[in-house]
Sequence to fold (291 residues):
Amino acid sequence: MNGDKIMFEINGHTKQLGIIGYPVEHTFSPNMHNFISETVHNNYVYGAWCVKPEDLKDAIGGMRALGISGINVTAPHKVEVMKYIDVVTDGAKKLGSVNTVVNRDGKLYGYNTDADGFCMALTKAGIEIENSRILIIGAGGVVRPTLIRLIDNKPKSITVVNRTKSKAKTLAEDILKSTGFEVKTEINKLEFDIVINTTSAGMEPQENVMPIENIEEINDLSFINENTAAVDMIYNPDKTLFLQEAEKRGAKILNGLGMLIYQGIIAYELFTDTKLPDDMGERIKKEVFGR
Fold:
């Protein structure tokens, strides 16, 4: 990875950005954000801070006291952090979580850029959401905001399947109340235009696990073909077992790297009030991730 050296000068005017989570050592956010600052000559430096859940309130108070310009928020703090900031934007309220906090003159504003980053990654890859039949595997915390943004883009249908069926049904009921959109939780016919894995199946230490394991209605990936887009929110490894098998069947495949990059770009623009070049996503992919 080439984005781990900060080449610009840090001085008394340098503004601070960062990410908080627990754990946080695995994050690539500093590599991305510091690359952006160097590229566009913005005097910001981005770090990573490991914050235990019981220290979250103090950490947010410290952000305000130290004048830190902005932070990204990752697991397990995305919901809890909403209690400690001044303004939760309408978009973040709708999605039910915050992953970006911007400090404007001591007033803290909460945004959610995750789902926007995901939809932007699909669009950039030429995957059309409108009028598509979408299958989502998994019903974890990332799925609710993703569903809401997908619904905003007018899909034909969305089906959510999960090894614990009750969790998928509870999520569908919540989405129906929030948006009026009926998310299906049963598969009547295995015909989908976009298939999205939101589970950790395929990521270390589950590299040899398929996300469809323990999903009653799906025995194999025979329903995936050259007319299907297979999307995995995992970006390490590049190609999970799910994506490998989908590619063999002729599907267009997309991993989670684009989501990571584009949510970061949106967050950086909020932090710094900067409009980044249109090709910044591709530059990050090449220069930071070597892809």
